[in-house]
Amino acid sequence: MEEQEDPTTDYIKGFNEGYRMSKVDPEVIDSIVATQPSTENDFLKGLLQGKKQYDLEQELVRNELIEWERKMKINPSVNQNDRSKDLDY
C-alpha cells in the first residue's frame, strides 16, 4: 500500500486559491491553467486541483437540480390560456 504524503503549505494555498478563483473569476483561472504547461510546483498543482474540485461540485449540483426539476413536473403540458379561464375578475 502506498503511503500518502501530507500536502505542502503551497499546495493547500494553491488549492484554496484555485477553488476561490473558479467561483469568483473562472476566466482568469482558465487563462492561468492554459498558460502553464508544467505542473511541477506544489502551488500550481493545488491550483489545478482546486479548480477541478469546484468544477466537480458544480456538475453535481447541476445534476441534482435537473433531477429535482424532473421530479417536480407534475403536469408540464399546462396551457397558459387554460389558467386564465379560472380567474374571476
Detailed description of the structure:
- The chain has one domain (9-73).
- 70% of the residues lie in helices and 0% in strands.
- It has helices at 9-24, 26-35, 42-72, 80-84.
- Helix 1 packs across helix 2 (26-35) and helix 1 (9-24) crosses helix 3 (42-72).
- The longest helix is centred in the middle third of the chain and has 31 residues, at 42-72.
- The mean pLDDT is 82.
Short note summarizing the structure:
By secondary structure, this protein is mainly α. The chain is built from four helices and no strands.
Write the topology of this structure.
Elements: H1 9-24, H2 26-35, H3 42-72, H4 80-84
Helix pairs in contact: 1-2, 1-3
Instruction: Characterize the largest beta sheet: strand count, sense, and whether it forms a barrel.
Output: none
Portion of residues in beta strands equals under 5%
Oligomer: single chain
Question: Ranges with pLDDT <50 over ≥5 residues?
Answer: none
What's the helix count? 4
User: Between the first and last Cα atoms, what is the distance in angstroms?
Assistant: 75 Å
